[in-house]
Amino acid sequence: MTTDFALNKCMKLCSTKEYAPSDIFKKLIDWGITEPAAEKLIAQLKKEKFLDEFRFARYFANDKYRFNKWGKAKIKLMLRNKDISDDAINEALSQINDEEYNEIVLSELKKKRKTIKDTDPYMIRGKLFQFASGRGIESGLIHKLIDRIIKE
């Protein structure tokens, strides 16, 4: 595959969906483009605004917390796995509305609480904590919301 063809293919991909630069880099390598050429293509895609890690991070964070009900810790980890800069990650996480985020987490914990058959409060707390931490919710928030659910 020629670099011009790969560039056009990447432009088409990036015009329909947000991609992390590392994802496009991997695609280029899979298509047989050399690393130096792939780096140049990534730079050109960034220059022409087809790729923007800040924009990708914002969309990724918003989608994952709203639709997948992921916590900030998991979103941060997944963005780091995609080689997104800490500045972009922090900016994306700061865009999440804390009130809405807390309500989503509380709602998910209440749903999970209904499925727990155990009656021992210690076991209930443990299962809720394990569930929430698996979703990447911060431990301080988990404790606060579990206390709220247990009191209800």
Structure write-up:
By secondary structure, this protein is mainly α. The protein has helices spanning 3-16, 21-30, 35-47, 53-66, 72-81, 86-94, 98-115, 121-134, 139-151. Helix 5 (72-81) runs antiparallel to helix 6. The radius of gyration is 20 Å and the shape is elongated.
How do you describe this structure in short?
76% of the residues lie in helices and 0% in strands. It is mostly helical and 152 residues long.
How big a fraction of the residues is strand?
Answer: under 5%
Low-confidence stretches: none
What structural category characterises the helix and strand content? mainly alpha
In DSSP terms (H or I, runs of 4 or more residues), the helix count works out at: 9
Strand-and-helix sequence, N→C?
HHHHHHHHH
Distance between the termini: 62 Å
Fraction in helix: over 70%
Calculate Rg over CA atoms: 20 Å
What's the main sheet like?
A: none
Secondary structure tally: strands: 0
Mean pLDDT: 91
* Broad shape: elongated
Kindly list the characteristics that best describe this protein.
152 residues; mainly alpha; 9 helices
Topology:
Elements: H1 3-16, H2 21-30, H3 35-47, H4 53-66, H5 72-81, H6 86-94, H7 98-115, H8 121-134, H9 139-151
